[in-house]
Amino acid sequence: MFSRITVGFDGSPPSENALRLACDMAQKYDAEVHICHTPKPETVAFALGAVSGYHVATTMPHPDQIAKAEAKLMEQACGIAADMGCAAPITHVGEGDPAQALLDHAEQIGSDLIVTGRRGLGNLTALVLGSTSQQVGHLAKCAHLTVA
């Protein structure tokens, strides 16, 4: 039923749940798992919060800090995938709007399913359903599953 599953990951608990579910489904359907992360100031600050000496600032972090945060999040995501028995997820770091980057990547690789967390680390204006999940749900050309 599914051969390629793309999951959006920003390090938030809902995105961790989405990744766990994507890995579980991938095992059932013998599917590839593609983990997609697109950094935003909020997600970079979240990831760097655990890096020694970093203090959240009002400006966008330096490109080196962004790269370090991306690596940290992908390491976290790959660890979750490994714990779920998915030893070889494929990772992708997008640019720009996270929803559009996720949609573009899923279309480019021919995903059958996109899995997102209901709420991530984005802005607080979309309180019930995150703006990324909402946009993906409206525009995806394949199945989309939103996980709480």
Topology:
Elements: E1 4-8, H1 13-29, E2 32-37, H2 41-48, H3 63-83, E3 90-93, H4 98-109, E4 113-117, H5 131-139, E5 143-147
Structure in a nutshell:
The protein has 148 residues and is of the alpha/beta class. It has helices at residues 13-29, 41-48, 63-83, 98-109, 131-139, and strands at residues 4-8, 32-37, 90-93, 113-117, 143-147.
Instruction: Name the shape in a single word.
Output: globular
Strand content: 15-25%
Q: Count the helices. How many?
A: 5
* Helix-strand sequence: EHEHHEHEHE
Q: What's the arrangement of strands in the largest beta sheet?
A: 3-2-1-4-5
Distance between the termini: 23 Å
Fraction of residues in helix: 40-55%
Q: What's the story with the biggest beta sheet?
A: 5 strands, parallel
Q: Rounded to an integer, what's the Rg over CA atoms? A: 14 Å
Query: Can you count the beta strands?
Result: 5
Describe the structure in your own words.
The protein is an alpha/beta fold. Helices cover 45% and strands 17% of the residues. The chain has helices spanning 13-29, 41-48, 63-83, 98-109, 131-139, and strands at 4-8, 32-37, 90-93, 113-117, 143-147. A 5-stranded parallel beta sheet has the order 3-2-1-4-5, with helices on both faces. Strand 4, helix 5 and strand 5 (143-147) form a beta-alpha-beta unit. Helix 2 packs across helix 3 and helix 4 runs parallel beside helix 5 (131-139). The longest helix is centred in the middle third of the chain and has 21 residues, at 63-83. The chain is globular, with a radius of gyration of 14 Å. It starts with a strand and ends with a strand.
